[in-house]
Amino acid sequence: MIPHAHGGRLVDRTAGMAERARRASEHRDLPKVRPAVDQLYDAEKIGIGAYSPLEGFMGSAELASVLKSGRLPNDLPWTIPILFPVPTGPGGGGSADLSTGDEVAIVDASDRPLALLAIEERFRIDRSAIARATYGTEDAKHPNVADLLAAGDEAWAGRVTLLRRLDPPGGRPEPTPVETRAEFHRRGWKTVAAYQCRNPPHTAHEYIQRLTLEREDVDGLFVHPVVGRLKKGDYRPEVILEAYEALVRHYYPPSRVMMSPLGITMRYGGPKAALFLAIVRKNYGCGAYIVGRDQAGVGQYYDPYACHRIFDEYDIGVLPLRYDESFFCRRCGWMASQKTCPHPASFRAETSQSRIREALAKGESLPAEILRPEVAEILGRPGVILTA
Ligand SMILES: [Zn+2]
Q: Domain 17-166 belongs to what topology?
């Protein structure tokens, strides 16, 4: 069954047409604030219901509850704080004075209003405590901890009204949860398995997608790559999307696979981020969720299978599809995992992203056991990885 949104009701914080026209004339007079790009993505996702039941940025009570128990005050599982740090740099405008009762226009880097924020609370945040509870570390080398420490130590809470969509990442349309649910329904899919990723597909990814498509309790696969804010060393979003399009075009029955980008900032919170990403996909209409090894991990911060176990600790009404690390075994002559292959690791083809990048950078060709040639061709082009 296509699940109800998290909390039971899909949030819609988009301004209607009449409302938008009225607001357009009014928000010219509102104080403008230009947050980090992370908050632009979050404001958009709140507006379209991807973060249901959240209707805005969290306040102190919600934050305390999420940090303490991984749940909202009404006991609904929610493991990642969604905060709006008060902008401190240029573009923060007169934010020093703004507090409860004020309304601000959230603008993007080119000063275009994206959303309105009705400030309901202004509160201090303990960034170290947030880092420890969410990411399990205060190490400033952790990318999300670094972001947190770079932000101010105050946040605004309040409901969001979305005025428009952001430009789609990678130039591909990014459907809303209402739209993906309608499309799943049109296709007659009842149980849709979401696949989280942020890299182009190699054969180990393809293997667990195929295992998922073979299940009798799965009707369709929704490939939903996170392509939000970019950092040096990332593939460009259009490259990830193009690589997946090639895989779907050449190797999957098109009637069983759907793809869309998801513009959010990646939270590398290991298990807590994996649960959050599954909740988001539930809002898009997915009743099953694929969890590979070390999902949403970075560096050595997380036990690679903690992201599996967290689905036993919290019931979010989504079927977790948990897979061990998979690989191509030269002795088996097949894709396998420890569950199906008895051979030593020396028989395994190395499929790590870093190995693939290294080979492609040197112009080496990669065997089809690691990368489909149609995907390798795309990844072998110059400029696919951000260098600055
Ligand atoms: Zn083997």
A: Sulfate adenylyltransferase (3.10.400)
Q: How far is the CA of 328 from the centre of ligand 1 (A)?
A: 8
Candidates 3.40.50.80, 3.40.50.620, 3.40.630.30, 2.60.40.10; correct CATH number of 171-379? Answer: 3.40.50.620
Residue 171 Cα, ligand 1 centroid: separation in angstroms?
Answer: 41
Q: Where are the domains of the chain?
A: 17-166, 171-379
Residue by residue, what is the 3-state secondary structure of 215-282?
CCCCCEEEEEEECCCCCCCCECHHHHHHHHHHHHHHHCCHHHEEECCECCCCCCCCHHHHHHHHHHHH
221 alpha carbon – ligand 1 mean position (Å):
27
pLDDT digits (tens, 9 = 90+) for 245-292: 999 999 999 999 999 999 999 999 999 999 999 999 999 999 999 999
Calculate how far, in angstroms, residue 302's C-alpha sits from the geometric centre of ligand 1: 27
How much distance in Å is there from the Cα of 15 to the middle of ligand 1?
56
Least confident segment among 30-44, 79-93, 148-162, 270-284? 79-93
Q: Are 341 and 359 in contact (CB under 8 A)?
A: no
Q: What is the share, in percent, of the chain residues with pLDDT greater than 90? A: 77
CA of 189 to the centre of ligand 1 (A): 35
